[in-house]
């Protein structure tokens, strides 16, 4: 009981004020360090978010280029405009803000990658015709 009374007397006698003053002084001294740590964490978070958004942009660009590649009667410029329109719609739907120049660059990069991975007409294997196969049965 005496201990409880001593603690109460210490708090009411100015002990708590002293502790608060010491803690406040330490926080004031440490604030520049704490602020730099918080700023670094915020910057890292923004970098990760930006990276994630641009990775999603690349995926959407690849999908748009692949989907539009089957339209032979549409010019390349029109395909690019349509790919940019599709991607901008997806960006708006997901509330992602990426400027039109970066979207166009992503579409162009996706097209270049698509072009290198697709077989050319010289290397496309054709299905054998009936003239190429032997239709007679051997018993």
How do you describe this structure in short?
The protein has helices at residues 2-68, 76-93, 100-117. The protein has 139 residues and is mainly α.
Radius of gyration: 33 Å
**pLDDT under 50 segments (min length 5)?**
121-130
Sheet-strand content, in percent, reads under 5%
Helix content: over 70%
Structure annotation, total helices = 3
- Give the N-terminus to C-terminus distance in angstroms: 111 Å
Q: What structural category arises from helix and sheet content?
A: mainly alpha
Count of individual beta strands: 0
User: How many domains comprise the coordinates?
Assistant: 1
Elements, N to C (H/E): HHH
**Overall mean confidence score, pLDDT:** 80
Shape: rod-shaped
| Largest beta-sheet characterization | none
What oligomeric state do these chains adopt? Answer: single chain
Organism: Lactiplantibacillus daowaiensis
Keywords: Membrane, Transmembrane, Transmembrane helix
Protein name: Phage holin, LLH family
Transmembrane segments: 7-28
């Amino acid at each position: 009981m005496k201990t409880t009374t001593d603690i109460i007397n210490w708090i009411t006698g100015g002990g708590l004020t002293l502790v608060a003053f010491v803690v406040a002084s330490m926080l004031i001294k440490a604030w520049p360090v704490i602020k730099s740590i918080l700023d670094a964490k915020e910057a890292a978070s923004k970098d990760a978010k930006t990276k994630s958004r641009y990775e999603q942009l690349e995926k959407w660009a690849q999908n748009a280029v692949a989907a539009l590649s089957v339209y032979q009667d549409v010019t390349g410029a029109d395909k690019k405009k349509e790919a940019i329109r599709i991607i901008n719609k997806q960006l708006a739907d997901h509330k992602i803000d990426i400027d039109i120049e970066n979207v166009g660059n992503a579409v162009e990069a996706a097209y270049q990658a698509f072009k290198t991975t697709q077989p050319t007409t010289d290397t496309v294997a054709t299905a054998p015709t009936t003239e190429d196969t032997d239709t007679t049965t051997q018993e």
